[in-house]
Design brief:
Oligomer: single chain
Number of domains: 1
Largest sheet: 4 strands, mixed
Structural class: mainly beta
Strand content: 35-45%
Number of helices: 1
Helix content: 10-25%
Radius of gyration: 11 Å
Number of strands: 4
Length: about 70
């Protein structure tokens, strides 16, 4: 089993420049899990070659606006 973690965002609650809030994509074989999906995550997914159609599950770590 192959796993790869793509760090899409690791900034604070307020995005600054190209650094967005928390967002990760975990790849397991040909399946992707989106972990938190802050504003701008879709642009970083595109830059990393991750298609929206490949996301099978979305996990939200907690209910702060910068995580969903």
């Amino acid at each position: 089993m192959s796993l790869k973690l793509h760090v899409l965002g690791c900034g604070s609650a307020t995005p600054v420049g190209q650094r967005i809030s928390s967002a990760f994509a975990l790849r397991k074989e040909n399946e992707f899990f989106l972990i938190d999906c802050s504003e701008g995550a879709q642009m970083h997914m595109k830059a990393n070659g991750i298609r929206m159609q490949k996301i099978s599950r979305v996990f939200i770590s907690h209910l702060h606006g910068d995580h969903y």
